[in-house]
Specification:
By secondary structure, the chain is of the alpha+beta class. The protein folds into 2 domains: 30 residues; 201 residues, no CATH class. Helix content is 42%, strand content 6%.
Length: 266
C-alpha cells in the first residue's frame, strides 16, 4: 500500500510539473523573460539553432536576402571593424561587444525560419523577434528607415540615398543603423542589407549585449537580465529607461499581443 501511495504521489507530482509547464508556456506569450536563456549564456551553434527551427512558408518572397550567404571576405571585414569616430573611436567592434564574434548570418530559409533561427541561437523568444521585425520592417528585408540630413549621401548605399544630402541610415529586417564615419555598427555594411540572416543575427548579438550585462555605460538603473529593456535598447539605450525606449517597448508588446504574423493576409 505504501508503495502504491508513493507511486500515486510521484505521478501527481509529474502532472503538476506538466501543468506548470503549460502555464509557463502560455505566460511566455506575454512575458518573454520566461524563455530568455540566462544572462551570460553564450549563443548555441548555428547548426543547433537550425535544428530547432519549425518549417514555415514564405510570406515575403521579395526577400532575396534570405538566400544570400556572407562571403569569407565580408565576414573578415566585419570581424576586423574598428569604431573610427564617436565616443568609442579606436575600439575594435568585437572588444566593445564580445558577442559579435558569434555573428555569422550562416542560415538560409524563409523569412519566418530566419527569425526563428536567430532567436533560437541567441536564447530570445522567437515571438519577440517576430514582433520586433513587424515593428521595424513588417518583415521586409528591403525596408529602410531613419531618414537623416547628411553632409553628402554619396558614402551611403545607392538605395539609401534620397538626394545629395539626405539618406536612410537603417536597413534590413531589424533596421540595423550604420553611418559611414564608423560611429555606428562599423563593418556591417553591406551585409546588414544583403543578408536577412546576418541582419537578424546581428540584432541578437546587440540585444544580448544589453541583456547579458556588457553595457557598463548604461547607467543608472541598468543591470543584466532585463529582457524588455534590452529589446527597447535597440531603439535607444541612453539614458537607460528613456521615454523613447519605453515607447518602443510598448509598440513591440502591442504587436506581440496581436500576433499579426498568424493572420492569413500578413
Amino acid at each position: 500500500m505504501k508503495r502504491l501511495i508513493a507511486t500515486i504521489a510521484a505521478f501527481a507530482a509529474l502532472v503538476l510539473i506538466a501543468l506548470a509547464s503549460v502555464d509557463l508556456r502560455a505566460a511566455g506569450a506575454v512575458d518573454p523573460s520566461l524563455y530568455w536563456r540566462p544572462a551570460g549564456s553564450l549563443p548555441i551553434s548555428d547548426d543547433l539553432a537550425a535544428s530547432r527551427v519549425d518549417p514555415a512558408p514564405e510570406n515575403r518572397p521579395e526577400n532575396g536576402g534570405n538566400y544570400y550567404e556572407p562571403t569569407p571576405a565580408e565576414l573578415e571585414t566585419f570581424r576586423n571593424a574598428v569604431f573610427e569616430s564617436g565616443p568609442n573611436a579606436g575600439t575594435p567592434a568585437d572588444v566593445y561587444n564580445p558577442l559579435l564574434v558569434y555573428v555569422t548570418g550562416d542560415y538560409m530559409g524563409t523569412t519566418d525560419e530566419i527569425l526563428q533561427w536567430a532567436a533560437r541561437k541567441w536564447g530570445i523568444p522567437p515571438d519577440v523577434l517576430r514582433a520586433v521585425a513587424v515593428n521595424e520592417s513588417n518583415w521586409y528585408q528591403g525596408e529602410m528607415g531613419d531618414r537623416r540630413d547628411v553632409a553628402s549621401s554619396k558614402q551611403y548605399p545607392k538605395r539609401a540615398r534620397v538626394d545629395g544630402d539626405t539618406a536612410y541610415e537603417s536597413m534590413g529586417i531589424t533596421q540595423i543603423k550604420w553611418r559611414p564615419d564608423g560611429s555606428l555598427n562599423p563593418g556591417t555594411e553591406a551585409l546588414r542589407r544583403k543578408s536577412t540572416a546576418f541582419n537578424a543575427d546581428l540584432w541578437g548579438a546587440n540585444v544580448r549585449y544589453y541583456y547579458d550585462g556588457y553595457c557598463t555605460w548604461c547607467r543608472p538603473g541598468y543591470a543584466p537580465g532585463q529582457p524588455w529593456m534590452s529589446v527597447g535598447a535597440h531603439f535607444d539605450p541612453s539614458p537607460w529607461g528613456n521615454q523613447g525606449q519605453l515607447d518602443y517597448i510598448d509598440r513591440v508588446q502591442a504587436i506581440l499581443a496581436d500576433r499579426p504574423w498568424e493572420q492569413p493576409d500578413f
